[in-house]
Design goal:
This protein is of the alpha/beta class and about 350 residues long. It has helices at about 50, 75-90, 115-125, 135-145, 185-200, 205-215, 250-270, 275-285, 300-305, 320-330, and strands spanning about 5-15, 20-25, 25-30, 35-40, 45, 60-65, 70, 70-75, 100-105, 130-135, 155-160, 165-170, 175-180, 230-235, 240-245, 285-290, 310-315. The chain has a 5-stranded mixed sheet with strand order 3-2-1-9-10, sandwiched between helices.
Amino acid sequence: MRLFSFTQEIAMDLGTANTILISDNKIVVDEPSVVALDNRTNKMIAVGGEAKLMLEKTPPGINAVRPLRDGVIADFNACEQMIRGLIKKSSRRNRLFSPSLKMVIGVPSGSTEVELRAVRDSAEHAGGRDVYLIYEPMAAAVGIGLDVLAPEGNMVVDIGGGTTEIAVISLGGLVANRSIRVAGNTLNLNIQEYMSRQHNVKVSERMAERIKINVGSALTDLGEEGPEEYVIDGPNKITALPMKVPVCYQEIAHCLDKSIGEIETAILSTLEETQPEVYADIVKNGIYLTGGGALLRGLDKRLMDRLNIPFHIAEDPLHAVAKGTGIALKNVERFPFLMRQ
């Protein structure tokens, strides 16, 4: 047991769907961004994976919530408690005093000053004493090994749970960027609406996520790589009787088409704002896909065919932003793009 406080360094990818914490160059927490609170005392009952199991299953006295919506804080108190709980999970030793926290946190590039302040305040109330913010596409670029300080253009498309972050990076800055609120959660909603309309079956958000993972696709023709049908159980929305519904990837590709088209349009709009020399670098280097959305089957091929530019899926797309915040944490003095005020 330590008698004196000390500084603990934590890098955090505070995501709509998942929050990842890195300490000592290791991922120490990778949990859903969910917290369960007691409605009477407002005290935290569970956080992360344990709280996610409670979603849509809680009695009136307990409220399981996602504190972030579309990449920004929707419930300040719940977010603060979630951050506290996840930081506690990351600390394996019992201490008499809480450590002083030095933190780097990834935030959407389209965040307003109010939204940035909300993230900073939540981190400070959870124990952060030295808090830096980094835009998520910049963190993703750092996390996949790009030299963001070089005089060369690179483009990153980070498709998370709440937002899709699109950025052209050169000389340590965002040359052009877009942040749109069309991402993984939007795709889940598309699937829920489609299943209700086409099959008359009620599907929860968690079930929609499972459908996306098992048969989600950006293309209607995946050839031999196409997954087998996925069978779901759910209530008929009219009779409430149980139903078994087989779902194939072709119909999910159709129902996701509009949202993926919005991501395509945002990428094109960002390219239109890019200077010719930087554009030439992007055509040569290709565009990098990160985030959970990068794992959607056929997405890279669809975008490549649409834009005629190579698309590369990052080696570990789910952890690209988190790894980038971890590297930034070790290079606070070297990276001028970190935000402290």
